[in-house]
Amino acid sequence: MSELHRFLFDGLPVRGILVRLTDSWQEVLARRADAAYPPPVRRVLGEMAAAGVLMHANIKFNGALVLQVFGDGPVQLAVAEIASDLAFRVTAKVSGDVAADAGLEAMLNVHGRGRCAITLDRADKLPGQRAYQGVVPLHGDAGEPLQEIAPVLEHYMLQSEQLDTRLVLAADDRVAAGLLLQRLPTPGPAADETRIGRDEGFNRIAHLAATLRRDELLGLDADTVLRRLFHEEKLLRFAALVGDDAPRFACSCSRLKVGAMLQGLGREEVDDILREQGRVEVGCEFCGVKYRFDPVDVGELFTPAVRQAPGSRAIN
Fold first, then answer.
1. Per the domain annotation, does 312 fall within a domain?
2. For the chain (length 316 residues), average pLDDT per consecutive 10?
3. Do the beta carbons of residue 107 and residue 75 sit within 8 Å?
4. Cα–Cα distance measured from residue 257 to residue 271, given in angstroms and rounded to the nearest whole number
5. Are residues 162 and 302 in the same domain?
6. What is the reported pTM?
7. CA 188, 190, 193: angle at the middle one, nearest 5?
């Protein structure tokens, strides 16, 4: 069962979040079984799903967080989208062979042009107001290539929030999991005086987190992971998000939206597809659901409602 745990370190300005996506992650892979991604792509998508949920749970805002990685390798694009209620969906566009041991560089950053974009699209933004987007390269400060998504996101959060952050991510075909630790700001005139102590405290916690192995993050339950890492620290834990409140897979596609997309293409282009294929079929890249429109459906799409005969079929 998927779950999310928030906690603080008593006496230290450090917060943490641990997420485990189990049944929800398995549902994502099952829905795309007919077009299964190569194992390294599944892994990076799982890590992006876990990271996106952690980042959204950390900043808590009303809207969608969209994490995109795009580049110049056999994986042209990988996307994780997380809604306000932590519902998530992922997809990737693969255009070439992906080696079984491929890392981030071999998949997305072959010629150094790979980028990671994080978009915060508020649900309550005003008309004309644009979503916030931050973009960082897929390499370190010294230009060295990065093989994992975690340090890329750490760099983004340091730039955007000015807060040190550590991420530990892992995914396989059963579980997508992640641990986020972040140093909190200390406001007020005493901030400079306590900076050294804050640095030492966060560095100690980050060092402990770095000892967490991939197999432990995937195979151990949340309580065991936190006890294994921080048994000498006093944790203040909040109520866990489990069951109906836990992060879950959900897709926002619908027949109505696909119909609107076809209307945007125009009648002539849609009719060309009908002549070639006998029907129009559009598959959702996130959940794999296929929407089919026969000639009657297409006719209704391009016939104003006031002119449709009684009993015409709706597209919802």
1. no
2. 94 95 94 83 96 93 92 93 95 92 91 91 78 85 81 90 92 97 75 59 93 96 96 95 93 89 89 89 86 89 62 42
3. yes
4. 19
5. no
6. 0.86
7. 145
